[in-house]
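In the previous chapter we treated chains in isolation. Here, by contrast, the input contains two separate entities that must be folded as one system, with a combined length of 246 residues.
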Amino acid sequence: MTTTFEAVAEIISETSDIPLEEITPEKNAFTDLGIDSLDFLDIAFAIDKHFGIKIPLEQWTEELNENNALVDEYFVLSKLCARIDEVIAAKDA
Amino acid sequence: MLLEYFQMIDNVEELDPETGSILARADVPMESPVFEGHFPGSPLVPGVLLIETMAQASGFMLLSRLKFEKMPFLANVTGAKMRTFVEPGAVLMVKAELEHDGSGFAKTRAEISSDGKKICDSRLMFRIMPFPNETLKGNMLDRFSQISRSSAE
């Protein structure tokens, strides 16, 4: 069964044309992989579609704007995937 | 349509904010300063303005869905196809449907037809953001009221 990280890595690779082997759990989508906010909307769209969820980007952005030190908490891929798992679990609950 | 003022939509024929669909009408004028340059001696509606027309129809649908609390801004145009020329006097029917209602963004599929023939189509993505000021919000509400009212008359 494909893990959340594997699925997200494939989505990022396809939408942003980044080699799959460069996409590892400790990478930050923005600062390490060079994804910008517009690219991330495409990624968010593909994640929403793939998992049948709506990742709360607006809420995350608001939280980030309140405290920039938290960027890694949202966009390091291992943590992003953990948050996605939380959204999936909340949907299935 | 007032091409030079980017007023592309003349009339909302059908609108369902819940499901996210809109059918709007856009009457291409016989004359416009735009036609003086595009093209001299052979006036055609520029393809970028057809994309803008699809974006505005999508935008009014999203605005009504958002109850004018936030503003959709065009962010991405994917797979736009201009299938035929649009000349002065054409009557355009603009259809847009919500493809995905994301958090802080939305995607639509839109197309324009005339006399039952498809003119162009595209997928569009919008960033959903706060209105930058109350003036814009007021103007969008006024414009929406105008193009919605004309369908009821």
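Helices of chain A lie at 4-16, 37-51, 57-66, 71-75, 77-92. The mean pLDDT of chain A is 92. Compare these points with the single-chain example from earlier in the chapter.
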